[in-house]
Write a structure and sequence with these properties.
It is built from 15 helices and 16 strands. The protein is α/β, with parallel strands linked by helices. Helix 2 packs antiparallel against helix 10. The chain is globular and about 65 Å long. It starts with 6 loop residues before the first helix and ends in a 14-residue tail after the last helix.
Amino acid sequence: MEELYSKAETLALRRKHIGPSCKVFYAKDPLKIVRAQGQYMFDEKGEKYLDCINNVAHVGHSHPYVIKAATKQMELLNTNSRFLHDNLVQYAQRLTATLPEKLSVCYFVNSGSEANDLALRLARQYRGHQDVITLENAYHGHVTSLIDISPYKFNQLGKDSKKEYVHVAPSPDIYRGKYREDHPDPASAYAEEVKTIIEETQKNGRKIAAFIAESMQSCGGQVIPPVGYFQKVAEYVRAAGGVFIADEVQVGFGRVGKHFWAFQLQGEDFVPDIVTMGKPIGNGHPMSCVVTTREIAEGFGASGLEYFNTFGGNPVSCAIGLAVLDVIEKEDLQGNATRVGNYLLELLAEQKEKHPLVGDIRGVGLFVGVDLVKDKQKRTPATAEALHLIYKLKEHQILLSADGPYRNILKFKPPMCFTMEDAKHAVETLDALLTELEEATGMKTENNASRNVQCKRKTTEESSQPEGAGESIGHMNGAACRQENGIYSKKRSVPSKRIRT
């Protein structure tokens, strides 16, 4: 493909004409991507990169079926939703069929930010309440109304940046949060924090309009809420006259594998009042949606204000949305997310046992986080190490990003056509780079010394136990000790061959 500008010229023009707050991946050496296919991206030299982070190209970059649907409709008509068109109602029907029955009314918009902004309007109009409860480290979009409810963003603006109508609940993080994996009921404990916020808010004469949360936090660090948390929060919020908004912009459309929507991981007894969707909905085409109940929609209409969106629900967007749903079904991408996701989690779990830098592995389907730590006991975030690994992986043509409040979580959220071979290649490369980094920093040596002491202590303790006592735990600890004492100590070299097309 012939370039209009060299990479250096493109970068210079970007710096001249594009706002400085618009950042690029790999700022020290940005990639110039000129095409993509499936789970691969290609730079201006034809170098091929495995894309492990692009949850927008949901069914794969440049999917021919989606492109054909878009082109066919664009050749016929593209206009606004004030005219009747079958694509709009067919897509609304198909989309709501994936949701619980009461979620039946759609508003089509153009981005996740637009969707979440409209969700707030719906919630506030419903009861006339104003206040919003959000989670620590949450991010819901870039428009002003959403920066206001996104601690991930407004905390960067200073201590007085939180608005009085915004209330921040602890993130339901059982690895780093207030209530951890050893707590008997973290779901209830975290939900009680929300209940306390509601009670304090009411004492001050304020009223809750909504609780909003990503069904699984992405920018917040790949956090998966404990089962039962959303049910209890919804109970408290609804009792206060508010509604529950489930933000599926990052994690919807089958990414979790076993369910089409991530909020369904909480169980069949949980149904949000409003669901927002974005990124994967159009496989890269700018579209999004808000789905809610008939009651909330009618309350919104009762204001007398018409809601109109110039591009939302246009025939081309709806044709693309329908095509994405077709591909998910025809190519069994939910099943693929389960199979490949489980395999990826298994491979990464082995890395957790092997590497002192890997503190936690958490995820569902093709939404997985690797929490890097300097100390497994203290869970000290390994921020610099995460950044180092991201750049080293790029050198080996694997694209990953780091996120979370400490920027120490490696995020896997690839296109849904990601394969087992891709997962194996990515983890094997990560394994070699972790080994190299740990040996260079002396971390491996320090960890081995600590593990030797622990293993000797456990052997002594277990020898005095009755036969069979603690068998499963002893087996796991034994395996871990063997790994750290040399069975996996052989150095591996990272493949350096560059792939060309």
